[in-house]
Design brief:
Layout lengths: L3 H7 L17 H4 L6 H9 L17 E2 L5 E5 L4 H6 L6 H12 L8 E5 L13 H18 L3 E5 H9 L5 H4 L4 E3 L2 E6 L2 H6 L4 H20 L1
Parallel strand pairs: 2-3, 2-4, 4-6
Antiparallel strand pairs: 1-3, 5-6
The protein binds uracil.
Length: 221
């Protein structure tokens, strides 16, 4: 019988990484029982005052999509349109994200859940600050516990670095499979960055193909 790593070999995933190289640990769910139900989580985010962003945001933006999705997409933080509408990735970057998902036969809401590291908009779209990331982290962890995704796709430098707790450049984080809380994680460029840097779309396509191959292998194994 083929092992999981044999399947990766079959798929032509190079020697850069293998599941066998990634330490196996018990799943997140078996380590930490979820602290929240979905209703409690939505309520907590809606009323959160854990960081200063609650004074400037319109509303907390929890996430959108299939709550039993295999795919969890994580961006940085809500922008102006997301803050107004209460849904992640609804602006120009969101349109490109939808196109990126469509390119690998995925649709928002169908086996896909989309959220951000921060649930509240930083004013003027400034970068998230460390205390804000720390204050929001329990919500992201609770989402992962509830969803139990098979794979995380981290969008952009900020999401990748804060999830992987590293300051390595995104160019070095791409192209291999990491783990966040034992969930395989693939890094790609943020759609807002791609809107300004069209040549990197080809690299993003490679990342999406890696994510898709990884998911296929995880499902097959
Ligand atoms: N950029 C993000 O990182 N998240 C959003 O929800 C919108 C834009």
């Amino acid at each position: 019988m083929l092992s999981r790593d044999d399947v990766f070999d079959e798929l032509g995933i190079g020697p850069v990484w293998r599941l066998r190289d990634i330490p196996a640990t018990p799943s997140l769910a078996s380590q930490v029982p979820s602290a929240y139900t979905w209703d409690q989580l939505a309520d907590a985010v809606a009323h959160c005052t854990a960081c200063k962003l609650h004074t400037t945001r319109t509303q907390g933006v929890l996430g959108v999509g299939d709550r039993t999705a295999d795919w969890l997409i994580i961006g940085e933080a809500p922008g102006a349109e997301e803050d107004a509408r209460g849904e992640p990735f609804v602006g120009q970057a969101g349109k490109l994200l939808d196109a990126m998902l469509a390119a690998i036969d995925l649709r928002r809401g169908d086996n896909v859940y989309i959220t951000n590291v921060l649930k509240s908009r930083p004013p003027g779209n400034r970068n998230p600050e460390p205390d804000e990331v720390a204050a929001c982290r329990p919500y992201l962890l609770a989402q992962i516990e509830l969803i139990q995704p098979k794979l995380i796709l981290a969008l952009g430098r900020f999401a990748a670095q804060s999830l992987l707790d590293t300051d390595e450049a995104i160019s070095r984080l791409r192209g291999r499979v990491h783990r966040f809380r034992n969930v395989p994680l693939v890094v790609t460029y943020h759609p807002a960055y791609l809107l300004r840097n069209l040549p990197d779309k080809a690299r993003a396509w490679e990342d999406l193909c890696l994510a898709r191959r990884t998911m296929q292998a995880l499902i097959t194994a």
